[in-house]
Write a structure and sequence with these properties.
The structure holds 2 protein chains of 2 kinds.
Chain A lengths: L7 H8 L8 H32 L4 H13 L2 H12 L4 H24 L3 H9 L4 H31 L12 H9 L3 H29 L1 H10 L1
Chain B lengths: L1 H15 L10 H33 L3 H13 L2 H12 L5 H24 L3 H9 L4 H35 L8 H9 L3 H29 L2 H4 L6
Main location (chain B): membrane
Organism (chain B): Nonomuraea fuscirosea
Subcellular location (chain B): Cell membrane; Membrane
């Protein structure tokens, strides 16, 4: 088209699917992988660890202390230190993000399980629930709102944090920011920020939806009260 | 174990090099820069967020602002924001970099200050009014001391954020310890990358310890329940 710089829509159209590694659609896929894997891994690891901390109370203090320290570590130097172990791969971004997620989710799991009222637990015992069934059918469902609140924090911050990985060449949509800086040009920055915030909003919305589906009694109770 | 030996070799190379300790690019100078930028951003964030959080928590007006800012700050990518401000405002001064640093560190302090004031027991607030204290006095003598643990938690979370973002900001030309990491990575000088990373991690840990200490010193013993209230 004309001689001036391309409009943002033109730029998107030209770079969406060029078949190269740095096309927007490829960066989007990478971004999703590097943020979703840590979110899921953090939950999978935090559940048993949180359960262990509730079962053996002395474990909680050292675990949460360690996780607080981990959470305070800036991501960029951690990526850099991991490069010598895992190379310039997606794993280098995924491992630290998983730990940050666990730092939020372990306390959430512990608080969630502690929020189960004592009389509910005793009722379950009196009804003859085995410890495993009590955990799966009574305690975990009651813990869902607190755990999912933690998941929302983890999902949104993981999705935005992936972009720092661009500084080691593994940042998903963050690659748009480094490209825009090296070759001063605004459209990639805007597209990157908008797509990342949009991804975060979608993830947040899905988790809110999951909470509604997993805790139907919350709405049922409200319904009878009104 | 190969990576571990090279890791220590890089550390020795970085910290053993006398050139790395002197001049404007030396470790003491870079450390001071990192401290300056982080402290400046955190100070500005505290000056904006604490009064705003106190007022919103006390009056209950503008609560939507707190929720939106908290969610937005988490979702906004720091690197994108930094690049955007630098492209918009140029690199003539440090402000194009400091502004996003402040923007991102306001919400944690704002949210926690607000929650802290909001969470003060209403009976305590009524008792203060009943004793004849006026609005401003209630805020200063009762609400702030009781909310202090949460306000300090907000500052601690912001400090984590600021130290990390200052590191990333080196990519857009800001000085500080991030320079070793960014420049070292660009020139494949891994001694500089590893040494710089270790310095930043240590810096972040020291900041956390200082905040833990500040919490012990500043929070009234009655509030933190270190001494039983009778």
């Amino acid at each position: 088209m004309g001689d001036g710089p391309p409009s943002i829509w033109e730029w998107i159209g030209r770079n969406w699917d060029t078949g190269r590694v740095d096309s927007i659609s490829n960066l989007l896929t990478d971004h999703l992988t590097m943020s979703l894997v840590p979110i899921v891994l953090a939950l999978v690891l935090a559940l048993p660890l949180g359960l262990a901390c509730v079962r053996w109370r002395w474990l909680y203090q050292p675990t949460s202390g360690f996780m607080n320290v981990v959470y305070a570590l800036p991501s960029l130097p951690v990526f850099m230190l991991l490069i010598s172990v895992t190379g310039l791969s997606q794993t280098t971004v995924i491992i630290p993000l998983t730990f940050y997620g666990m730092a939020v989710l372990i306390p959430a799991v512990v608080d969630g399980l502690n929020s189960v009222p004592d009389h509910v637990r005793q009722s379950a015992v009196a009804m003859g629930f085995t410890p495993l069934r009590r955990l799966l059918q009574v305690e975990l469902p009651i813990a869902v709102p607190v755990v999912l609140a933690g998941m929302r924090v983890v999902a949104v911050s993981s999705i935005s944090l992936v972009s720092v990985g661009a500084l080691i060449g593994q940042g998903g949509l963050g690659g748009l920011f480094t490209r825009a800086y090296q070759n001063p040009f605004m459209p990639p920055v805007i597209v990157g920020i908008v797509l990342i915030v949009a991804l975060a909003l979608v993830a947040d919305g899905l988790l809110v939806l999951a909470q509604r589906l997993l805790t139907p009694w919350v709405r049922a109770r409200k319904g009878t009260a009104s | 174990m190969n990576w571990l030996t090279s890791f220590f070799a890089w550390l020795v190379e970085f910290f053993g090099n006398g050139d790395n300790w002197a001049g404007s690019g030396g470790i003491p100078a870079r450390l001071l820069e990192h401290l300056e930028f982080s402290a400046l951003a955190l100070l500005l964030a505290v000056l904006i967020a604490v009064p705003l959080g106190l007022v919103i928590g006390h009056t209950g007006r503008g609560e939507v602002l707190v929720v939106i800012s908290a969610n937005l700050a988490r979702a906004l990518p720091t690197l994108g924001l930094l690049v955007m401000f630098v492209l918009l405002l140029g690199t003539a001064s440090i402000w194009p970099v400091i502004i996003p640093l402040v923007l991102l560190s306001v919400p944690p302090i704002l949210v926690n200050t607000y929650e802290g004031v909001k969470g003060v027991d209403p009976e305590l607030r009524d008792a203060a009014y009943g004793m004849g204290l006026r609005g401003g006095q209630v805020l200063g003598r009762v609400l702030v001391p009781v909310a202090l643990p949460l306000i300090l938690l907000g500052c601690r979370l912001s400090a984590i954020q600021v130290v990390a973002t200052t590191t990333v900001a080196s990519y857009t030309g800001l000085g500080g310890l991030g320079r070793y990491v960014i420049d070292g990575f660009a020139t494949k000088d891994y001694a500089s990358v590893v040494g710089g990373s270790v310095l930043i991690v240590l810096f972040a840990l020291v900041v956390q310890v200082l905040f833990a200490l500040a919490q012990r010193v500043a929070v009234s013993p009655g509030v933190s329940q270190r001494s039983k209230v009778r």
